[in-house]
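User: Before I run my own analysis I want an independent prediction to cross-check against. Here's the chain; please return only the structure tokens and, at the end, one sentence I can use as a sanity check.
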Amino acid sequence: MKIAVMGTGAVGGYFGGRLAQAGEDIAFIARGRQLAALREHGLRIESPRGGFQLRPVRATDDPSEIGPVELVIFTVKLWSTDEAAGGLAPLIGPETAVMSLQNGVEANEALARAVGREHLIGGVCYIAASLDEPGVVRQSGPMARLVFGEPGGGKTRRAEAFLAACSRAKEWFDAELSGDIDRILWEKFVFIVGLSGMTSLTRKSIGPIRSDPDTRAMLLEVLREAVAVGRAKGVNLAPDFAEQRLAFADTLPPGMTSSMHNDLERGNRLEVSWLSGAVVRLGRAAGIPTPANGAIYAALKLHAGS
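Assistant: Structure tokens:
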């Protein structure tokens, strides 16, 4: 399957690299030091599911050098969505699918404006991975999973083709074709909003947050607000989904944190505007109060452009 990875960070590098390892035709779109490293040294994956060195790597900063593909895996940081979406045109043919693996729930609207809603496939990934240095992806823990599906449900030839490609890489990640990808997207979004917001606000991992009664209560309220906004938008979230996610948080390693907390500690730009900030925006539009998410957004927004 001919696939382009737009945004070759940890997520794009891992799943794109594993698909290439399985024999798929993968082209990586990157820039700066990452592009230079891919061209010079290739892509290295360090993982409990087996290390791998992909070399040579087909990598470019110009999508026109690749041309139309069957699938674009879109993994840029949320603040780069509009800019990157504007560069997709050379990759798009009549049957091309575009699948975002970003954390927010608003990216598909930007992609729809750029390429047309008919090209979109919903996608969610579950993996703990980081870009240790340019060209090197390190996975911590064995979980690596993709869930994807057509908006509105249903099975299509393009979705089945990608599932077949993923099955050829099943040694290195799991994949599922979902009939309700909108709900899956929101389920992940709810938890990411809570985890990223509270770990960044407190500068602590999940263990101390869930153990202290005040921060535990605030985490639950952050989750409840996100669930309420999703349900107001017609997403089929369980009424007690926030409580379910809090119970799930109790099962996590106490040292677990979020990529946004890590970005804050490193002085990097934050995705808070597309996480807690999105809950605030969408809540305002739906008439849902979101004071806990509003507090997180207000406290972190001055760091967002660092």
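Sanity check: Strands lie at 2-6, 25-29, 43-46, 52-54, 59-60, 71-74, 97-100, 120-133, 136-149, 174-177.
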